[in-house]
Amino acid sequence: MEICKKRSHTDARPLNTEGGTCMEGQRKIIAIIGLSGAGKTEVVEYIIERYGWPKVYFGEVTFDEMARRGLAISEENERAVREGLRSEFGPLVYAERVIQKIEPIIDTPHVLVESLYSWEEFMRFRDVFGSAFLVVAVHASPAIRYARLAIRPKRPLTAAEAWSRDRSQIENLHQAGPIAMADFLIINEGEREDLLRKVDALVRNL
Length: 206
Fold this sequence. Notes:
This protein is α/β, with parallel strands linked by helices. The chain has helices at 40-51, 59-69, 75-89, 93-102, 119-129, 142-151, 159-171, 176-180, 192-205; strands at 5-6, 28-33, 55-57, 110-114, 133-139, 184-187.
């Protein structure tokens, strides 16, 4: 079984799309993306614990704004803030604020970016970081994701809420594009140990 697939490249190593050569040894900005319940947070937490890479989180922008407004944490409020910020400041507001968070830690070996959402954000990161920017998509079927979301201890979602979130992220935030264009794809539909083996294989290929 293939541990981790690199799209459009058979030896599973990232390409420098500008020069056509592998980027081994180059500092990288690595976005871990996926729909809710796919397992991206577990991947990020494991890499931080095992390899010590720093992380910036797109969701921090939402929570910072919710705290500023005095809003309770809920799916409805999070969605309203996400879409409201983009409506008020433009589609790149999250990308620009996260890039500001990356700048102080850019000298570390690699930086993880959790929960990049939109096509516009994806393109902005490509513009800023060039070939040092890589995307890892974590995927699981809706049925598996919704089952996980229903029992997670923090902010559980019903199937209807999970479907609504998926639809909002795909239709309003254009999240499908970055997932489709990811450099690496990790299928997370088995046991945790299987997922961690895939993550270790991915790290070795960076």
